[in-house]
Amino acid sequence: MSTAQTQVKREHRRSREIFERAEQVLVGGVSSPVRAFRSVGGEPLVIERGSGQYLYDADGNELLDFVCSWGAIILGHANPAIAEAIADQARRGTSFGVTTELELELATLITRVIPFIEKIRFVSSGTEATMSAVRLARGITKRDFIVKFEGCYHGHADSFLSHAGSGLATLGIAECPGVPQALAGLTLNVPFNDLRAVEQVFSRHKDKIAAVIVEPVAANMGVVPPETGFLKGLQEITHRNGALLIVDEVITGFRLRNGSAQELLGVEGDLTTLGKIIGGGVPVAAYGGRAEWMNHVAPLGPVYQAGTLAGNPLAMRAGIAALKQLTKPDLYDEMTQMARRLVFGLRAELKDAGIPAHINAIGSLLTIFFAPRSVRNYADAKRSDTRRYARFFREMLNRGIFLAPSQFEAAFLSAAHTTADIDRTLAAAHGSLQAMTTEPAA
Ligand SMILES: *Cc1c(COP(=O)(O)O)cnc(C)c1O
Asked: How far, in Å, is the centroid of ligand 1 from the Cα of 153?
């Protein structure tokens, strides 16, 4: 099959026209930076609707979606049960400013499968969840420093914006202007998968570190799984030093199994943050943990945190409808099998094309690093050839496959993806890699 045959020439006149108008009033034409496709070039997408594993842009092009709203859409777009729940709740009222039984129901669905979350607080974004968890850890320990890992992303609160992954990695922003130096100085960065560095930072700042925050599987520098003993080691070091371990499961929660990744990886954080999947595609996030810690949050304790639309019924209904479907037997196994098929196929295609690359994968998460050697931390990830990734991204998009518009993000499968989709993706990868090795970059 020639590349010309597999390549679909996408028409994007209307998308371009909308995006150009958007650039006049929306900063960069977007509501979140990576959507502008700055690091991969090409035309940013303007999407009109989604259905299952597909997105449809403003010109009517169908795209096979491996972004899935950055992992939130684990059941595919416009999932019927979620859509019905949202529509039904919209007719009953969308926000009351007081407790509803729906919050109890979503909390129960979560705590039943993550038993070490005894109490939970709903917020509206992952950023709020991590920011609040750090405030709580500082409030409990009466200490100011926090430890995070280079290349991990915990949302855009001031304390997390140094050497962060996701859009900051994509745009090459190491330190963010606007974050007071006095605050940035309280965030200590260490390499992922490096327990010795964690020990060192604790001995250098004895009795001053409130918490370590970590993604149990790093997924915002591309996918980087934890090495054996890393997470368990963090738990041991934090406790020995009177600090708390915050496990940020905004991506991994309900992504690798029906529950936390922590259980899979043999670790238990003191505080856990959730987001993305638990909202069924509507803004919901949460933080929680043992009652002994969560009872420090207002109104039970003095650590203040609030939200006008937090726990609103529309969002709760979407989350409930999503989580109820995640109990389906084999759902996660099938996604993992599909991801394996994709990973093995891609490795073979990359090898055939003679292009150096390493694929990291776990469950339904994966990243193709165009890197000279395997990737176990942010320094390794940054060795990737981002121009090569950009070319691959554009070639795939031209063949109707939407991958993350950045080398430093994960590809996400959903339960809506099929074996036929994977095989189509591999055929597109074959054509894309062939084009990359035979035709000069456009
Ligand atoms: C997406 C993400 C966040 C931030 O969530 P938002 O809802 O975008 O604020 C925090 N932590 C991790 C691990 C994430 O992937």
From this structure: 7
